[in-house]
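From the methods appendix. Each design record in this collection lists the tokenized structure first, followed by the designed amino acid sequence. Records were kept in a plain field format so they could be parsed without special tools. The example shown here is representative of the layout used throughout.

RECORD:
FOLD TOKENS (112 positions):
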């Protein structure tokens, strides 16, 4: 059985990919770097408001700020792995590693 634990970064200067990191990078920066691969997480979109974004296969980004006071900055970056099944499936399903990564990242303290 494959298991993976989502890992969020607490370091404001940490970067993933070409110069994308929490606190300083904007959503537009991430869209420019990742293009169409930077997508809203359907599990983290509520009433048309996107709280989390993904870059498949294993990056999750939160939108900075608080509900009602969201910013255009990256709040938290989390890495997540394969799904709960040996064939890698189960990532983007209820109870899968993506929903768990979203929960952890959206619960983590953000850089300001």
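DESIGN:
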């Amino acid at each position: 059985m494959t298991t993976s634990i989502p890992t969020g970064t607490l370091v404001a200067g940490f970067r993933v990919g070409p110069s994308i990191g929490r606190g300083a990078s904007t959503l537009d920066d991430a869209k420019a770097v990742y293009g169409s691969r930077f997508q809203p997480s359907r599990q983290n979109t509520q009433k048309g408001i996107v709280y989390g974004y993904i870059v498949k296969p294993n990056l999750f980004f939160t939108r900075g700020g608080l509900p009602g006071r969201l910013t255009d900055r990256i709040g938290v970056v989390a890495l997540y792995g394969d799904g709960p099944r040996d064939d890698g499936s189960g990532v983007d399903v209820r109870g899968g590693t993506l929903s768990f990564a979203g929960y952890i990242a959206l619960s983590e303290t953000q850089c300001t």
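APPENDIX NOTE: The beta strands are 7-8, 15-16, 20-21, 38-40, 45-46, 49-50, 52-55, 59-66, 69-79.
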